[in-house]
Every structure is written in structure tokens, then in C-alpha cells.
Amino acid sequence: MHRFANPTRFLKIAAAVQPWMAGLTIILFGTGLYMAFFTAPPDYQQGESIRIMYVHVPAAWMGMFCYAAMAVASAVALIWKHPLADVAAKATAPVGAAFTFLSLATGSLWGKPMWGTWWVWDARLTSMLILLFLYIGYMALQGAFDDRTRGAKASAVLALVGAVNLPIIKFSVDWWNTLHQTSSFMKQGGPSMPPEMWIPAVVMAVAFKTYYVWVLLVRIRQELTANKVRILRLKQVHGG
Amino acid sequence: MGKFIELVKRDLALAFRQGMDSLMVVAFFIIAVVLFPFGVGPEPSTLAKIAGGTIWVAALLSSMLSLERLFQTDHDDGSLELLALAPVPLEITVLAKVVAHWLTTGLPLIVTAPLLAVLMQLPSEGFLVLIAALLLGTPTLSLIGAVGAALILGSRRGGVLLSLLVLPLYIPILIFGVSAVDAAIFDQSVRPHLVFLAALLVGALALTPWAAAAGLRQALE
Amino acid sequence: MSQFLDFHFNGDNLVCVRSERTVFRGLTFTVPAGGALTLVGPNGSGKSSLLRMMAGLLQPASGSMTWDGEDALNDMDVHGARLHYVGHHDAVKPVLTAAENIGFWARLRGGGDDTIQGALDVFDIKHLYDVPGRFLSAGQKRRVNLARIIAAPAPLWLLDEPTTALDKATIKRLEAAIQRHRDGGGMVVLSTHADVDTPGSQTLNLANFACSAPLDEHVMV
User: Fold this and answer.
1) Closest approach of chain B CAs to the CA of A117, in angstroms?
2) What is the Cα–Cα distance from C59 to C49, expressed in whole angstroms?
3) Are C78 and B87 an interchain contact pair (Cβ–Cβ within 8 Å)?
4) Cα–Cα–Cα angle for A37, A38, A42, nearest 5°?
5) Where do the domains of chain C lie?
6) C111 in contact with chain B, both atoms CB, cutoff 8 A
């Protein structure tokens, strides 16, 4: 593990992997979107609007996946004081927030033809909305300190608290939702879905994953460079 | 245990001599609830429908008001360093401060709640359950809030940031608290709702002092 | 007559990183029972950081500290119990009297209220016994804070600029108190700009451990 702890070695590997990730992402997105728009069949009930699912569902998955990744990175940063873990958690947050927002936006677009309204307090959408708040709180806390290391540590604790709370929030929202009985458009899925539908969904999900890895590498490299600049500045100030 | 009581007594003494905090929280609680009839109209049936929810939302917001100062004054005047160095585990110190916070804000809210329930036309079946739910729920609010209060120490924009961190985490308590009151009004079993509130309290008691203490140690570095 | 056991407090090869900057490194110190260590050095050389590190408030980036040969920071409650820390703030609550302020910290360390009078007398502030903190001047607050460490004995005193706001007569009293503490086998580490007369004290110049070489890889990231 400490082979990768060394930022110099990490930077070398990252520089080598990054173009591959970029290429893979573009190819997968091209294929996935083509399949979603042209080869996948329209739904017998929802018609063409079902195609929003191919973006909405992977985005929602990624929103949750990124929060989990952030929590794991935060735990590693707190327990083993691994310098790259902090940077990785910090780099993941805005990407995860963007995915979460995308899933909310597409959910809203999907809701309009389905229910005739832009927003319905559906259990899944509501949970994603709260997840977005958690991301915003995390990023706000991180930026709220003059001392960056303090911001990183405080937000790491918050990420873990949020990760413990997320299942509870999810459960309570489901509970609340069944009490008030709203409908959901996500009734299909699982084994009953024909391959023409689940294959593009999987391709899109993998495309989102590789996109995340690509952006993560770019952001980590940026962050490490910014750190170097800041430390050089500090050396100027303190003459060390 | 003696030292725990010592810590609680100190915070209570500080709160009472500094005066107004508890009263202001209660005043805010009342005003916040009283705004709703102006917003939705005074029809008793409308008010009765939203009574449980508004009282809970207002309780959530009021209990957050004084949270920012939970560790802030001790942090600013150097007491927090000495508390961290005292031969009492910091987790216990956090717990003592949370108990004092609940006694000075949570408890007054619960005492005021029946009055607001009357103003909001809450059906009489809901009264006892509202009190029980608040008794189980408000300590959890203080516990979760303590984590947020510890994390924002030394930050710019403490208060607004605190609400951003803490309010999303309050949602489960709000949900179970309100559903308990609704269940009582519609003559359903209130037990599962109260059991969940109790479970949240137990979980928060076990976990939040650690997280808050970790936040305090970071703030002191 | 020795009040404390014959312990010694050591630091070995300590590195301090603050806000991504290496403040000092390779710092080693030894304080024997009855010993005193005076920290000198220019602003920003890490005198306060070293004292906070000795108190356990600040984790060393590397290196270790030992108390009587054992890892000093192993159990923070034990370490906290054997030291008194006087930082930049006086931790005097405005609504508590001088006696209540001192009494709280003494009781938290297992002491009683019987030592308060004597402690106040050491710094000639008996007349402030029941004066609330908000009426005290900066110098009086500092004296109350110093009386706090007399009220509940602990072998290691960590004093960060203890003479701030003190007049000449009080500095003399502080010197006498430090001497009595050392005669009883206690240790003192202090940083100071003014001259505090501590006979037989070692001096540690933090400028000698400043980081002039290129930054470490782990800091550089």
C-alpha cells in the first residue's frame, strides 16, 4: 500500500493511466448513448421517455458510490494519515455532488411526462436530494477554514458521520414515503428487463465509472500541483 | 461520575448566570410556530393537520440556535484546552456538555410544546405522544448537534455552516417524531415510531461523543 | 522533602508541522525531576507549538516523548493528570467568581475547595475570592489562572509566556512559586520574552531546530 503512498510514484502511474481512462470513457459513452437512444426499445407504458433512465440510474448509482468512496478515503486519511487519501476524498466530493445533481435533474425531467409535474416526493428522489445536501455541507466545511489541513480533517469526520447516517436517512425516508403513498417510476428493473435494455444500462454505468476515475486522476494531479505551489509560497514567507 | 456531575453543574451555572439563552430559545420556538397560522390561514382543520409537523420543525430549528455556542465560548477563552487536558475522557466531557445543553434548551421546548399544541389545534389524542416523542427526540438533536458544533470550531461563518451540516442529519428524527404524533391522532399504534426514536437516541449516545471529541481534538491542534 | 516521585520527561527527535509548514525538527529535550527548561527563539520558531506538543494537544509529525521511559501520550487522561498547562488564554469565566473558577478545575482533578484560599494567597489575590471574572483586569485574570495550577498539584508545569500582563512584584511571586514547585521535585517548562529567574534552568533555543533544508517528501506531497 505504501508503494502508492509516495506521491511521486503515484503521479507517474496516474500520468500513464489517465489517457487510457479518457479514451475508454469516450468510447463507452459513445456506445452507451447510441444504444440508449437507438437500439433500446421504447417502454410499452412510458414510451420514449424511458430513455432518460439510461442516464438517471447510473448517475444515481454514482452519486451514492462517490459518497461511499469519499467516506472510505476519509477513514483511511484519519486512521493511517495517508496523504493521498485526503486529496482523493476532496477530489471526489464535487464529482459526486455533480452526479447526484444530474440524477435529480434527470429525475425531474422524467417526472414531467410521467406525472405532469417537475417534482414528486418520491422516496428515491428525496433521498438523493438529502444526499446532495450532505455533499454541499461537506464541501462547505472543507472550505471554511484558513488552515487547509484542519478543513480536510474536519470534513473527513463529517464524511464518516454522514456515511453512518445515510442508511438511517434512507430507511426513514422510505418509511415516511410508505406512510404518505406516492408512486414511483422505478418499478421495472431486475431480471424481468430484456437484454436490449439492461445492456445499454450497464454500458452507461461503466462509462460513468471510468469517467469518474478519469476526472479523479485529473483532480488529484491538479491538487498535488497546487499543494506544491502553496508550499513554495509558504517557504517564501517564512524564509525556510 | 462525580466529575461528570461537576461538568454538568458548571455548564448549568454558566447558562443560568449568562441568563437569557433558554428564554430566547423558547421565545423563538413560539414565534416560529405562531407564524404558520398566518402562512396557511386559521382554519382549525388545516392547522390540526400540520400541527405535529410545524411544532417538530420549529423544535428542530430552535434547538439549533444555541448549538453554535456549545463549545465556542470554551474554545475562545482557552477553557476547552484545559477540559481536554483534564483527567476526564473528552467523550465524557462532551456528553456532560450535551446533557447541560439539553436541560437548558430541549427541556424548556418540551414544556412549551403543549401550549403550542393548543394554539395549533392539535387533537387531544396527540398531546401525550408529542411530549413522549420530543422527550426521545430532542436529546438526539443535541447529540448530533454537538458533532457539528465541534467541527465548525475556528471556521469562518460558523452559524450558517452549522445548520447546513446538522439539519440534513436531523431528518430521520423529524420523520419519526411527526409520524408518531400522526399515528396517535389517527388511532394507530404509536409504538414502532417511538421505538425508532429510542433506537436513534441509543445509537447517537453511543457514537456521537466519539465523533465530537475527535472534532474537538482537531480544533485544538 | 520531595512532593513528586523522581520522574523525568523526555522528547526525542520531535518534528512539528503546522499548516503544512515544518516548524522545527530533530528536537530533543530532557527535563529531570526538579528541573526547569526555558524555551527561547524568535517569533514563529515554535515555542508555543512545542509546549502544546508536550501537553499532548498537538501530535508530533514524528518523534516521541517519554515519561519515566514510557510513551507519554499513550494514555491522554494519565498524561493530562500529571501536567498543568497555561496558554495564551486565561480560561476565566466572566460569570463565575475567582474562587469558583479555580475550584472547578481543582475538583475536576480530584482536589477540594480547601486549597483555593492558599492558591489565591500565593499570587496575593485573596481579596478577589468572590469577585466575578468579568470585573477582573488582564493581570488579575492571569493571576487567577496561575493560582489554578497551585490549587491542584501536578508534577509538570507547561507555561506559555506566563508573565504576560504581570507586574514586577507578581513575577517575583511566580519565580518563588516555580522554585517551591521544583524543590518539591516538580518540573517546569516555560517560554518567555521577559526574564524569569529560574536558577539552574536549561535553555533550549528553538532557532537551532528550524527547518532550513528542503522540505520532507511527506510534507511536500
Assistant:
1) 23
2) 10
3) yes
4) 75
5) 8-71+85-220
6) no
